[in-house]
Amino acid sequence: MNEANVVIACCLLGVAIADLRQASQPKEGYKLKQQGGGRGSKNFVVGTGRNLDGTVNTQAKGIVPYMEPAAHGYQGLVNQRKNNYDNFLRSNIDNEQDNRNFNQEAGADMLPFRTYHSGVPLTYPYQGNAPNGADDSLQNVNQNNQLEQVILKVKPGEPTVTPLRWNNPHASEIEVNLWLMNSNPPTIVPIKKPACSGEGNQNNIIEWAIPADFNQINWGNCPATAQVTGCQQPGDCVLQIYAHSVETRQYSTAFPIVIEGNAVQANQQLKFNPVAADADEKLSFLWPESEDLKAMVTGDKPGNPRPRASCRMIIERRDYRSLKTLLLWPKFR
To answer: Which stretches of the chain are DSSP H helices?
Structure first.
C-alpha cells in the first residue's frame, strides 16, 4: 500500500468514528453517562448534571437534558435511531445527510439544532405534526416512563458546565451560541468563542455563562430584536453547542434555556478575560496570498489579491508550513 492509500484509509477511518454528543441518552432518562477514556481519564462528578426542573443537581450526578435529534423523515436515520441509537445521537451532520435516499428524500437542513425545521421541543418523548413521523422522537422508551422537560434554567453570570462525550481522533473547535427564537429570523448571541476540544475518546466539559447584564438589555432598541422579551419562557431561547473538526465535520447539540432573575453575585460569576489564552500565537498565522482573507475575517473591505504564492517563493523564504500544504495540492505534485 503506497503513502497516498494510507492517507485515504486514515481519512475514511476518521469519518467513521468522529462524533460528539452530550453525556447522556434521552431514551435512558438523560441519566449522566459515565464512559472510560483511556489512561488518565476522569469521570464526571456531582454538580455536573441537572435536576428534573432544569436547575443544577448538587446532591447527585443528575441528568443531562437536550433535544433529541430528528430523523427528518429519512428512512436511513429512522433505522439508525432504532438499531444504533448512540451512533444516531452523536454522529456528525455530514454523515447523517448521507443516510438520505437522494433520489426520493428531499434534503433537510439539520442546522442549527438537528431538530426538524429548527423546532424547539420542550419535552421528551414528543410527537410532532410532520408527516410520516419526521418530527417524532423515539417514542415510549424513556426508562423513567414519564415526560421529561429538556429545559435548562440558569441565572445571568452563573458558571455553567455541559458534559460532553467525544469520540473523535481529530482536533476540533467548539463554541456556544444563544439563539433568540422570537426574532425573525432568530438572533444569535455568541456566548463562548471557539475553543479547542475533542481529540480522542474522552469525557469533556465545556464551561460557559450567560452575560451578567443579560436581563437588563433593552431589546426594543434594536429593530432586529424588537419582539424579543428575553429568555423568560420555555421556547424563547435555545442554547446551541456547535463544533467542527478538521475533516471537516459539523456537530450540533442544543437545549431550550430559561434565563431567570438577577445576576449571581459578582464573586460567583464566571470571570471574563478579554485576552484569549492563545493570544501570543496570533502572529504565527500566515494569511493566504491568493485572497485577502484577513479582510474577510476582520470585516474590512478586501483589497486586490496578491499573486498566488509559488512553490519556489515558499522554499526561498523557508516557509515549510505552507510548503507542506502546497505539496498536498495535485498541481504541485
So the answer is: 3-17, 75-83, 85-90, 93-97, 293-298, 311-316, 320-326
Instruction: Read off the pLDDT of residues 286-320 as tens digits, 9 standing for 90 and up.
Output: 777 777 888 877 878 887 765 544 444 444 444 44
Instruction: Evaluate if residue 17 carries a pLDDT over 60.
Output: no
Residues 73 and 220 in one domain: yes
Residues 262 and 307 in one domain: no
Domain-located, residue 228 = yes
pTM of the model: 0.79
Instruction: Say what the alpha-carbon torsion angle 321, 326, 199, 109 is, to the nearest 10 degrees.
Output: 140
Spatial CA neighbour of 209 closest among 164, 250, 252, 152: 152
CA-based angle 119:122:128, to the nearest 5? 55
Q: Which domain holds residue 328?
A: 286-332
Assess contact for 153 and 53: CB atoms under 8 A: yes
Same-domain check for residues 201 and 295 = no
How far apart are alpha carbons 233 and 201 in whole angstroms? 36
